[in-house]
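Subject: sequence -> structure tokens, single chain

Hey, anyone have a minute? Need the predicted structure for the following. Not urgent.
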Amino acid sequence: MSALAAPVAVAPAVVKRRRLKAWQFLTLLVIALLIAWTVIPLFMVVMWSLVNPDDPWSPPAVLPPSLSLAQWHYVFEYSNIVNSVITSFTLAPVVTLLSFVLSLPTAYALGRLDFLGKEVLRVLILLPIVLPGMVIAMFLSRAFFAVGLGQTFIGLALGHTLLSMPYMLRILTTAFESIPQDVIDAARNLGAGRLALVTSILIPMVLPGLVAGAIFTFINSLEEFSLTFVIGTPTFQTIPTILYDYLGYHFVRTNAAVVSIILLVPSLLLLFATERFLKAEYLSSAFGKF
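Reply:
Had a minute. Here:
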């Protein structure tokens, strides 16, 4: 009777190398997906914005036969893009400030206090995100025109604030919830009054959440179309309304690509700047001050 073969032991170094190869494969797969999902579309948008109208780009050509700034010149010359950029970048900061002022007390109550109906309120503040934008826009247009806010900057700002506040509220609420009660109790035991507690404890510790909420609110206002189209146009136009003009029945891909870049670049720059600000050590340093 032959003896059974002894099991072959796998060296720990071999197992470690196999795991490393698996992680390397997954990393490369994620990078490839990110390139396919973001880099390639961005590259194509840039190429379409630089197509020479005298030398059209069509299959099977992989790249435009020649490049030109004619599409950019056309958009700036024959559309209302300059005024729409001014309107968008005036409206978004106003909406961000209004959202912060209106959201701060509610976020504090949801994050630090216990009261009847708290969970119901959490759901209600998310409704503007859940409901279709055009439905909200049609309802608000009726109400705003009835009180004289239609076709006005104030009406646009209030409408954008309603749609953007859920982002600010949700993020600020989570930021307030994450503050340890021990820190607040220690500050009170050391004699900190209400004003000192707010300015020296609460605000510094929710500042990363405030910045994140401001970024989401700003970008949401910058990219809002339905409400602006129903309430604001033709008196007020923003970048998305100009973009949808080129995405309508007479689809002009090259001009739409130009407007898309104008809308995209500020958002990307804002996100990169915020990423440098919202570092893990920033929150750690905030805790270290107390």
